[in-house]
Design brief:
By secondary structure, the protein is α/β, with parallel strands linked by helices. It contains 15 helices and 15 strands. It is 40% helix and 16% strand. Strands 2-1-3-6-7-8-9 form a seven-stranded mixed beta sheet, with helices on both faces.
Amino acid sequence: MNQNYQKIEIIPVMFDGRFIQRVDFLQQPSQISSRNSGLLQLLINNQVRTFLLRLKNKFVSYFSVILFYFYWNYQKYKQPGFLEFDSKTILPGDIYVIADANWDLPKTYYNFLEILKHYGVNITIICYDLIPIKFPVFCSRKFATHFTSFYKSYSNLFDHVLCISRNSAEDYRDAQRQGILASNNPNLKIEVFRLGCNYSNHDEPKDSNQVNQFQHLLKTRYILVVGSILPHKNIKTIIEAFDLLINSKQEEIHLVFAGNKGWNTEVDNLIESHKMYDKLIHILGSVTDFELNILYKNCYCLVQASFYEGFGLPVVEALQNGKPVIASNTGSLPEVGGRFCIYFNPHDHVELYRELEKLMNSDSYYNQLVTRIREEYQIFTWRESAEEFLSHLLT
């Protein structure tokens, strides 16, 4: 790690409806250790605890909201002096990173960010994708409404937007040009950092019951699909291509979904109502990193058929394991997979079927792909991802 980064103090925090408090993993908040003057303070929200507090915020009384309003407005118009955080001073130039889902927090969160800006704190957000804005049909109406409202209202506060792909960064700029997101900050920086893919250091857990449950699949030839079963994952195209495949092949092939069911029951039913469900088609639900790594190592290939992805972690994780990937040619997937993936039109299930059939019909073709991936694909580690993230954050 770059020595300059060793001087940074990273403090995970959560917003409690009025201010922030430290979070140590999922344990109770604890006192912040002292820091040397001038060190950078990186404040990162914790998703789980924040979610629990959102429930609490829904029951905040009308009287309390009025008190919060006067408190924040009093803070906003004070002369800049110092702002304390657990008896520690937040200094101008410190960075507050919005790293998780914040789109249904109360109005006091906006006021809180205004206070931070008033005291010279840099507001940075990690933008994973803008699917609810670009493709609201892929989301529940409530989620799309909250997400879009958050970005519309809060984007004028951002000093720095860090996107996980060039495609996502361009989507952000497009939304600015369309007037959806604020473009009134001439100093706003929109930059890109890449996600890592190395899973090699995950030790075997003490409880391997889940692995035992799908142990029989590891001995079969199976196509792997990774991620929650959501509309933008294009499940229908996968199922239709798989139907053509099993009807045309003599040898047995399985289709394995490693991910939780989503909010859309119609998408779930595409799988569960299939005549081959629990025979050749399987939903494993949530799996651990260790279990997922086993599934990658033993799969025949990965299919990433999404209509859109902000990055597409399964693509790089499968490539890291030397497995062929058939991915859609939209969103960030061609950027992430580069020349190592086979691409198809996500609206054409026949094209996906033909690519799968081509793999299965030629061992030499399959082995050439595997050899090229294993010899030429450059793994990008999570350590490198962190360094790239910090390099953008500090410039």
